[in-house]
Structure formats: structure tokens, C-alpha cells
Design goal:
Number of strands: 11
Radius of gyration: 23 Å
Bound molecules: calcium ion
Shape: globular
CATH topology of the largest domain: D-Maltodextrin-Binding Protein, domain 2
CATH class of the largest domain: Alpha Beta
Largest sheet: 5 strands, mixed
Distance between the termini: 49 Å
Strand order of the largest sheet: 2-1-3-10-4
CATH superfamily of the largest domain: Bacterial extracellular solute-binding protein, family 7
């Protein structure tokens, strides 16, 4: 493990400052200095360490974050240099937030629901049970007050988060038995982080939050009975089919999990407006590309899981979904009681689910249903 802890800061280009000082002292024509002044400021080198909650080269999550870090450098002709550290290369996955909040590193790539123990409202900013899909989440964050609430939440910790990827609707998980009713969830020790895990807890299950790199060994050893992770493309790479055969859909717990780039706020605000814009624009690009890659690769991976690995695909029935809803209501009642901010996040979430969701109900949902009925391909 790399233990390097040096604090990386904006390089103020001392050599350039020296040049201007020398130029003034020696009476070099002012016009020459002024013609250089603007590009000299714009050319400030920025160095940042980015930690991540994902293993190196992990499909989608890890490769998407690595691609994002590289893009920041490519967009600035190497002027913004981001050194990327996958989980355990600088800090452990779940220490990423503290690492950036403390200023030891400048950026993280992760999912903000990993921080619900710090504040439950973080749950709204990755995925909420019965919540937003990818396009709805982006609508909520960008145009319906989501980003403002997210900023308010992170501000207390000295960080700021931006959308930096999405997995789309996640699968319900891997089980060793059929899940036919609420009773089948009782006593089930399942890896499921965030609000989704808390819903399972309300139904008598035992949710466990483990970083991706530790799930397989726990499932194989029997330390956990079941797990959710992401979807076919990612779950195939994890080889969960070696330990569990029933693969359930759709997951109620993560209907469009938003990935985040978190920045140390005092570092971020010390950057030029141009560099802040470069980072935010690269985040939006990474978001779109990540979602596109998941949509492109999940279908083929699902076929391989079923045909090559003998996975049994199962759909949660209405009874199970009704039980999930019962747990979700109980959870949301509690979250709202936590604080004024949690209550306002919940109110904004419900408003978004109604307004944005009602449009989905009239557009995507019936169209896809009719498309498949009338001309299934
Ligand atoms: Ca998941």
C-alpha cells in the first residue's frame, strides 16, 4: 500500500513570479509583461490526489473513475495533474471521504451513500428505495433543487460533490434460495449499503455494508447469505455466480445509483473559475459516458451469466415488493425526524418523485411497454 501523505497544493509557479519581479526591476517594457500576464495566470499547474472507493480497473466504477482522472489531465494539456489512487492504494475505500474532508487528498470518486453514518441525508444523493432512475436523478440534481441541498449537506464537512457517473437500475441481488415473501428476508445476512440496507433491516434482515473488494470472499465463506452489487456487467466480473445462483430483479434499493466526485471545498474554491469549470464539465462527461457503458454492456453480460454460468434469473413478486415498500415507509419516517436538513431533502425527494416521476409515467414507461408489446425485437 502506498503511504504517501504529502499534501498537494496548487503550484503558484514561483519561477513566473520571479520573472515578473525581475522584469519590473530591470525595466523591461511594461507592454511585454502585460502581454504575458494573462497566459501566465491561466497556465498555473494544479496537482491533486484522487482517492476512490473502487478497486483498480474494476469495470465501470473503477475504469470510469480512472478515465475521469485522466480526462482532467487531457482536457488541460497536462496542466491539471490528477494522481489516482484506487481503494487501498492510499486509504481504505470507506476512508475516502475523511481523506478529502481533511485535505490530505483533494478529490474522491465514490458513492455518497457510503457516508450515511455521517448524515442520513447522504442516502438521497446516491440512490433511494423506490426513488429516481438515472434520467430522473439528473433532472432532480441539475434542475429541481437537488444540487443545492447536496451542497448544503456537504458544506458542513468542508467538501462538495458533483454527479460523476451512474450505474442505472441495479439488480436486486444474489441469493441461495428463492425469495417469495417477507419471511424469506427475515434473518438474511445480506450485503446492502445505504437506505436499501436499512429497508432490509426493517424487514428483519441483517444488512452489511462491505466495499466491493470484500464481497466475494464473504459470500463464498458464508459470512453473508446474499449480496447485491450493481448489475450483470459488474456482477459477472465479481463471479458471484460461484456462490449464489438466484439472481433477482429489479432492485428496489438502487434504481439509478449516482456516483460522485467529491472535492475538498477550500482546495476547489482556490482554483481559477476556469479550472473549476473544467472539473465540473469533466464530471458531467464522465456521468454520461459511464451510464452509456453500463447500458451497452449489461445485456450481453446477462446472457453470459444465464447461458454460460447457469444463473437462475428471478423477478421479485408483488408480495416481496409490497414488503419492501412497507420497510421504505418506515425508514423514510425515521430519516425525516433526524434533522431539518434531512426533512427538507426528503420533501424535495418526494416532490421530485411526483413531478419528474409523473412525466416518466407518461413517457418512458408506457412507451417501452407498448414498444415491446407491438414490435418486440
Ligand atoms: Ca449496489
Amino acid at each position: 500500500m502506498i503511504k504517501e501523505k504529502k499534501s498537494l497544493k496548487v503550484n503558484k509557479s514561483p519561477s513566473r513570479r520571479k520573472f515578473f519581479k525581475a522584469a519590473a526591476a530591470t525595466g523591461v517594457a511594461a507592454v511585454a509583461a502585460s502581454s504575458l500576464a494573462a497566459p501566465a495566470v491561466a497556465a498555473e499547474r494544479v496537482e491533486a490526489a484522487m482517492v476512490a472507493t473502487w478497486g483498480r480497473d474494476f469495470p465501470g466504477l473503477g475504469t470510469g473513475a480512472q478515465r475521469f482522472a485522466k480526462r482532467l489531465s487531457d482536457m488541460s494539456d497536462g496542466r491539471i495533474q490528477v494522481t489516482y489512487y484506487a481503494a487501498n492504494e492510499r486509504v481504505k475505500a470507506f476512508d475516502s471521504f475523511d481523506e478529502v474532508a481533511s485535505g490530505n487528498s483533494q478529490m474522491y470518486h465514490g458513492a455518497d451513500y457510503y457516508w450515511t453514518k455521517k448524515h442520513p441525508a447522504f442516502g438521497y444523493f446516491t440512490a433511494s428505495p423506490f426513488g429516481f432512475t438515472y434520467s430522473e436523478m439528473n433532472a432532480w440534481i441539475h434542475f429541481a433543487g437537488g444540487q443545492e441541498l447536496w451542497d448544503e449537506l456537504t458544506d458542513d464537512f468542508g467538501t462538495q460533490s458533483f454527479i460523476c457517473g451512474n450505474t442505472g437500475v441495479q439488480m436486486g441481488g444474489w441469493f441461495n434460495k428463492k425469495i417469495r415473501s417477507k419471511n424469506d428476508l427475515k434473518g438474511l445476512k445480506m450485503r446492502m449499503p445505504g437506505f436499501g440496507g436499512q429497508v432490509l433491516g426493517k424487514l428483519g434482515g441483517s444488512p452489511v455494508s462491505l466495499p466491493g473488494g470484500q464481497i466475494y470472499e464473504n459470500l463464498v465463506s458464508g459470512a453473508i447469505d446474499a449480496t447485491e452489487w450493481v448489475g450483470p456487467w459488474n456482477d459477472e466480473a465479481m463471479k458471484f455466480y460461484e456462490a449464489a445462483k438466484y439472481y433477482y430483479y429489479p432492485g428496489m434499493h438502487e434504481p439509478g445509483s449516482m456516483l460522485a466526485c467529491g472535492v475538498n471545498k477550500s482546495w476547489f474554491t482556490s482554483l481559477t473559475k476556469t479550472d473549476q469549470m473544467i472539473i465540473k464539465t469533466a464530471c458531467a462527461w464522465a456521468d454520461e459516458l459511464t451510464m452509456a457503458e453500463y447500458n451497452a454492456k449489461n445485456g450481453a453480460a446477462l446472457s453470459r451469466l444465464i447461458n454460460d454460468h447457469g444463473v437462475k434469473l428471478e423477478q421479485f413478486n408483488d408480495k416481496v415488493y409490497d414488503a419492501f415498500a412497507e420497510g421504505a415507509r418506515e425508514l423514510y419516517d425515521e430519516v425525516q425526524q433526524h434533522s431539518d436538513l434531512a426533512a427538507r431533502c426528503h420533501a424535495a425527494f418526494v416532490k421530485g418523485r411526483k413531478e419528474i416521476g409523473n412525466w416518466t409515467n407518461l413517457s418512458d414507461s408506457p412507451y417501452i411497454s407498448q414498444r415491446n408489446r407491438a414490435l418486440g425485437i
